[in-house]
User: What shape does this take?
Amino acid sequence: MAEVGKYNRLKVVKAVDFGLYLDGGDGQEILLPTRYVPQNTGVGDEIEVFIYHDNEGRLIATTARPKATVGEFQFLQVREVNEIGAFLDWGIMKDLFVPFREQRSTMQAGRWYTVFIRIDEVTGRIMGTARIEKYLNNTPPPYEYNQEVQLLVFEENEFGYKAVINNLHSGLIYRDDVFRKIEIGEHLKGYIKEIREDGKIDLSIVPLGYAKVEGIAGMILESLRLHGGFLPVGDKSDPEEIHALFHCSKKAFKQAVGALYKQKRILLEAQGIRLA
Assistant: This one.
């Protein structure tokens, strides 16, 4: 049985003037309109498609790829708002519907919002909701220290930035750990910093511990090579200058420089650092 809101690999069972019919299971045939039919695809072939309902409530297939599927969070722009709700640009021909009851505040055309994509229990159709906290997993997370994760930043508060982790949990990037501009809706790589006793998760946007130092050390060495073996930065440099060069804190920079000096890979001079 074809799964609505997901990618499905289905067999072509019939060709017509306006497209192909695919086997959706249980005797159901799903139309793939001509505009989405890959070249040289015919009866008997299997094809990966995304399944959704058209405006008439009929199942339809497309080879276009939406910006997110059912069970995922995404940052989307509102195309239109009418008397029943908002319609968001979802990356396919049909917009994603978010009814008023699923909006945290009234959505406005042209603005961007983080939503969770789910199936409406009543209609069986795909819909979006901005009440994303209801769909974040509250079970104890299985993450390990410094584990790499995928983040979607969805909110800024007095402490820092809240982010969805691996489409499952919520975590916080503390403002003090941020050394570059972060945008709401940004997808970025992150690392597990700590899982607290209350289950809340602290995040970092750079590797932690020695892995972090190694990464910064590599950037320092590469930059030295590109600049003739010398950089005019050191203990007295401004944190902003260091961050502009290496996207890290001054403390992390000093740790990396110390490691390179111990390895005798650089020389420390009054005006900066030099490749050994």
User: Anything to note?
Assistant: The chain has three helices and 18 strands. The domain at 148-204 is CATH 2.40.50.140 (OB fold (Dihydrolipoamide Acetyltransferase, E2P)). The mean pLDDT is 91.
